[in-house]
Amino acid sequence: MRSFFPLIVPFGFLLVTCVANTEPTLSRQAAPAATPLSAAATDTAAPTTLRFLAVDHDGNPVTDLRAEELSVQVGKQSRKIVSLSPASTDPRTIGVFFDISGSRRADRLIPVEVQATAKFLASIWQRDDVGFVIAFGEIPVTLAKPTNDLQQIESALQKIPEATYRGSTALYDSLCAVGITGSQTGRGEKLFIVVGDFEDNSSHKSEQKMIETIRQEGVRIFPLLRLEDNERRVSNVRRLTKIAKDIAGESGGDVLTVSTEKDLDNVFRRLTNELRGAYRLTYEPSPHDSKPKERRVQTTRRNAVILFQKD
Q1: Model pTM?
Q2: Within this chain, do residues 211 and 110 fall inside the same structural domain, yes or no?
Q3: Ranges assigned E (strand) in 137-219
Q4: Engineered SS bond to 194: which of 40, 97, 98, 124, CB 3.0-4.6 Å?
């Protein structure tokens, strides 16, 4: 097995199969109280909880949505909303994935990406948050196991610029790899920030299988898509962007595109804003909802975009 990091935790410590779903908790600012609309559902099935992000077209958080501005459909049938509340105080598990394959060997922005990521985590970190760091090329390698200690996360990130960048890329395998589990990995909203060019040329799992896995496990993916401004990249921009958008769209995340150093501050500012617009919505189910059906969440609020995980 090829080793990219001489001092890195071996592959046996790899964290993550795509982990379970809850809600983001970024902002400590005051948020509107939950909006109860009805008593508990009368059906025998328990009410269903759906988590989503609400932003405007500029990426700014929409933090004052009301339940009456929303509608939920499962299949083609409307569902009664029971409650709506901001999701800004619960713990999170934040996974950071960095592409260290050969395609990024000459990327001059890698040290800047690392510093921007560390700065972002420091700005949003809360006491009960858990984080981990994975580097991936041909195989995923754990740089930091799940921990509440932000300093361990920051130390792991600093290893990335000194890595040996070579080999092919197994992006899909890395996002769906099965590794260690533990009490810490099951807490709070599950967010994966994936930094790379979104090329995949060696995974055993297909893109569709990877998307199915992150759906099942309830992970929200935010691709930080690195597109270099040269001829080789120009020919692949549409394909790589589509892959990133498919992954983000299915998981309820968003694509954050980086071409220049200036873009990094902008994309992390946008990510912070999107997570501040996090909500938890509960609706009354139907006995027929036990079978997988497409869910739709819509709002009458002008200039508001709803991001949620597709079924």
Answers
A1: 0.77
A2: yes
A3: 140-147, 189-196
A4: 97
